[in-house]
Write a structure and sequence with these properties.
Chain lengths: 250, 250
DNA sequence: CGCGCCGTTGAGCATTGTCAAATGCGGTGG
DNA sequence: CCACCGCATTTGACAATGCTCAACGGCGCG
């Protein structure tokens, strides 16, 4: 009953694994909230701030990250239009979040959000589905970090990022608004290794730079180079790949 | 409800950061289910099986893992008494699970479980809390895999494992029922590196072998060697247990 | 008592990190 | 419009951590 129609449609509704987000049901919780704008680099909230709000990204790109005591940063995910930030339901944010590109969000008090979830059963399925997707994405990221080489990581990243963007997926034209440092912190690599890998991919024609943050990509080539996906029982691969919103976090 | 007490005291400890899990409310969902026993190595379910059941671990130790197409294995977590398996609410399990030690579990059909969650608001807070804890753990694991050295990983593992077990935490006596291969697959290392790291730790007196799967540990030394914990503001590194509780009564 | 499995240890090597310097994109001001 | 400047990015040389391959050790079980 949690796992309802809505959740299922989030998967199968769109043919291309574009954006299973934007469940109408959850989106309309935020519908009447005013839109706030965050400029590139602007924080939305900080790690261990009291978790007062839940945010819906209307448009833009957000990075979600943890800062370690030695100053290093780990990006646990990039969030796109339709994603929610801060649903983890802890009393403090376990991570910080900043706009990467100009981002428009709607804000909802967490208290009201929880109330809404409690009182309106029709919203719960998609909330749970979202948490599940997020968990699946986290596990995929663990697999990436635990087993993949630098090149596989970068290619995986490019493929999954391309999937978030219809233009990228269909037109082979990929925008990467985030910096190299962002990518490095996300993939558990150094900026130099990321850079070298991009160069190497370019030299082999898997990607072609068209400006600093735009590339023409050969998606099949990248998919091959991305290496292993979870195995077991034929259908499962597709299943995982299609369902898991690889970048969701929060 | 009192079954809860039993479970708390049975083996895995009690007051210490032991289990934010085992919220009495959730435990009693499983209360009347018969106990099933899984012997070491025995699978509970396989990756991409239809997710028909939710399990509560009454006693024992379970590994949860993904198998990659090249045969490698990534262990995404170890689960202890009081933990739940299979709450991810996808229609298929995204991972396999096997008993590491002799394990007793209670099984609940996922359908009934979801029904229960839907109909009984009093259970929802602790379910949410649990999902949040799981997410927090996943993010910590990402941090570990993205930034830590072999030694830091092993020490982190030892400290966190010790925290699950009162005897280990208080008496400095730690049981590690899992194999080196399990540990390696969990920490994103090879079995050789894990072994070497154990030897090195032993030679420096941070741990003292007392049999193949038992060690006497110096927890403070290990905590130091474990390196970075998330920074920023107060003592946010205790997040796992602390935050979940707020929902216990919501 | 011996076999097999799990774990340990060793040597060499590869990938990736570190440190340092050069390059060039993109924005700004003349 | 062009030149310049700052900063992200790239590239290079080198070091090191952890992996691979290989052999050995020892505990447990038949």
């Amino acid at each position: 009953m949690f796992r309802t129609e809505v959740a299922y449609q989030s998967r199968s509704g769109t043919v291309i694994p574009l954006a299973p987000h934007l469940q109408p049901s959850l989106a309309c919780v935020f519908e009447r909230q005013p839109i706030e704008i965050f400029e590139p680099g602007q924080p939305i909230f900080w790690q261990s701030d009291p978790a007062k709000h839940v945010f819906e990204i209307v448009e833009g790109l957000v990075r979600v990250f943890k800062i370690l005591s030695d100053g290093r940063r780990v990006i646990t995910g990039f969030l796109y239009a339709g994603d929610l930030i801060g649903i983890s339901l802890m009393d403090r944010y376990l991570y910080g979040s900043e706009a990467v590109a100009k981002t428009r969000v709607r804000r909802f008090s967490r208290q009201s959000f929880q109330q809404k979830m409690d009182q309106s059963p029709e919203f719960r399925p998609s909330l749970f589905a979202r948490l599940s997707d997020e968990m699946a994405a986290a596990q995929e990221q663990m697999v990436l970090l635990a087993t993949k080489t630098a090149e596989e990581r970068v290619c995986t990243f490019l493929v999954l990022t391309a999937r978030r963007d219809r233009e990228a997926f269909v037109m082979s034209r990929l925008d990467l608004p985030m910096t190299r440092q962002d990518i490095a912190d996300y993939l558990g690599l150094t900026i130099e290794t990321v850079s070298r890998t991009f160069s190497s991919l370019a030299s082999r024609g898997a990607i072609t730079p068209e400006g600093r943050h735009q590339y023409r990509i050969k998606i099949e080539k990248l998919m091959t180079l991305a290496g292993e996906v979870a195995a077991f029982h034929d259908g499962s691969d597709m299943h995982d790949g299609v369902n898991a919103r690889q970048f969701a976090s929060a």
